[in-house]
Amino acid sequence: MKVVIAIDSLKGSLTSMEAGRAIKEGILNILPETEVIVKPLADGGEGTTEALVEGLGGEMVYVDVHGPLETPVRAGYGLIKETGTVIMEMASAAGIILVGKDKRPLDATTYGVGEMIRDAVQRGCRSFIIGIGGSATNDGGIGMLTALGYEFLDAEGRPSGIGGGALKRVASVRTDKVLPELKECRFKIACDVTNPLCGINGATYIYGPQKGVTENMQEELDADMAGYAAVTKACIGTDFAETEGAGAAGGLGFAFLSYLNANLQPGIELVLDAVDMEKSMEGADLVFTGEGRLDYQTAMGKAPVGIAKLAKKHGAKVIALAGAVIEGAEKCNENGIDAFFPILRRIVTLDEAMDPETAKQNMVKTAEQVIRLVAAVK
């Protein structure tokens, strides 16, 4: 029997690979001759870097960069030396978690994201996987692009700035100082939103409020974003303002599309491709997946359902294990997960349940019982 394991992390408890290895241990305790493949799983959001770095045998690189506001931050990204691939999350340099209550959308910048990219380019990397969720910014990506050598100038030819408030001043773009190596780079962007850059469904109106954009600011800031898009079209020759995902991360999606020839993909699809999940599924009889909490939201396209759909494509049965199962999880059964099980074995406190050693043993023991059932009915 061939079994593939791809389970999301149990946040605060087990990483994706730790959970996967625990399931593997349980399977082999009962059926030691089973072929078991463990793959990392994430959805392109928080935790994706760590999951892919651990699962693909990479290493973390840390670099001091500009944070979203004045305070410098130490940002980390993953490096897979074998393939020269970089895995980043923009939130590590420009995430909303870094600003706390000090939300200033006119000042917040993605400059640090560009610094991370530049650092990786200078290390010889040319392939990038970047998650762009959780931003504190609404700068259309001009901060990131400025760090990469693009010059955004006002009507008098002076630098326009690097925050959301600078968009109104952008009158032209110069490219003669852009890192020449960018022409060799390939950018795959994990993006799960479909919003255009501007308008009532765009970056400013939909996501701006959570970053501090007030109702009084929305109309003007959205118009400034549209003006920036028009200048981009005139100077760069690209026109992605209406493209799905352009409004992601305060317009960072637009910057990647317009200036870096990036490919925007749903996060789960990008991750599955990065770990060559499809090839692993070939010939699989059983697939284990899951996450910390299984509920109705899981069925709405989260990572375990992405795994289930791929498994069904190859005719495999799918079992999901979770730290907790909440009302509404039955929806998962309508989306490719044949059966799911919580791993808790007795009533404990949340802290006890999330203790890594306890969670590991619970995962092992639950996998043992599941595989005993599978063996009994084969």
Which short descriptors sum up this protein?
single chain; 13 helices; alpha/beta; 378 residues; five-stranded parallel β-sheet; 35% helix; six-stranded mixed β-sheet; elongated
Q: What this model shows, in words?
A:
This protein starts with a strand and ends with a helix. It has 13 helices and 13 strands. It has helices spanning 16-30, 48-55, 91-94, 111-122, 142-147, 203-207, 215-236, 252-260, 267-274, 277-281, 303-313, 350-354, 356-377; strands at residues 2-5, 35-38, 59-66, 72-80, 85-89, 127-131, 151-153, 172-174, 186-190, 263-265, 286-294, 317-325, 339-342. A hairpin with a 4-residue loop joins strand 4 (72-80) and strand 5. The chain is elongated and about 75 Å long. 35% of the residues lie in helices and 19% in strands.
**What is the spatial order of strands in the main beta sheet?**
3-4-5-6-9-10
Percent range for β-strand residues: 15-25%
Share of residues in helices: 25-40%
Q: Round the mean pLDDT to the nearest integer and report it.
A: 94
CA-based shape: elongated
Extract low-pLDDT stretches: none
How many strands appear in the DSSP assignment?
13
Distance between the termini: 10 Å
Overall radius of gyration: 22 Å
Kindly name the structural category: alpha/beta
Q: Number of helical runs? A: 13
